[in-house]
Every structure is written in C-alpha cells, then in structure tokens.
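Final report, closing paragraph on structural work. Over the funding period we assembled a curated collection of sequence-structure pairs, and we close with a single example.
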Amino acid sequence: MKSPESPVSSIMTVNPVTLNPEQKLLEVKHIFEKNEFHHHIPVVSNNKLVGMISLIDFVRQLKGSSLDDADSIYHEMTVNDIMTPNPRSISPEAPIKVVAEMLAKGDIHALTVSENEELKGIVSTADIIRFLLTQI
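Its predicted structure, as stored:
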C-alpha cells in the first residue's frame, strides 16, 4: 500500500503527451480538446525538459480569438511563444508528501518529474487527490 512517504513515481503519469517548442498552437488546441487530459503539457527539446504549457497559459494567449482552427493565432504562434520555461520539477524518488506540500501552496497545479533534465512523468493536484482518496 502506498503511503505519504512513497515515491511520487508511484502516482505520477508516465509517458505524458509532450510538445516541442516549434509546434504551432493549433496542435496545442487539439491536445487540450481531447477528453481525460491533464491541463498541463511538458515541453521537450532534444530529450530535455525545457518548459510547460498549462490550459490557463493557452487560454490567456487567445485574447478573444475564436475557437475556429482557421484563426490565424493557431498558425502564427508556437509553443515557445507561450510556454513557461524551466518548469518546477521533482525527482521520481521524492516522497508524495513533499509533492503534496508543494502543490498545496497553490501557485502551481502540476510538477514535472525528471532526472538529469529528462522527463519521466508529470504529477498534478488531481493525482494527489486520487492518492488521498485511497488513504481514507
């Protein structure tokens, strides 16, 4: 049974969908439109974690643009234009409790899980809540 001291790797999403900095926002839009998707997408370049895009980051950039795929914003802007560089990351061995404490501060809602700048997974507040539900 998992405990608060168990490694975050035991609850993280492994092999998350990723983007590269050169991709157009149209591809980001299509990913976010899918059901059952994290609201955060890691950005990877040359197998190294370089950024993160949240659904909130994406929506803020739209600034009144339409949801029509033909809208120019989706073809002109890239992931690099809206990503948060150098996202907060944690080791796969970090205890779930430490991750919960970080996310509980409220300034972020997901952390990348990486080793030597290589993405291993992603953990979100939803993952922490699902873990806590198994504890009660």
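The chain has six helices and seven strands. The chain has a mean pLDDT of 93. We thank the funder for supporting this effort.
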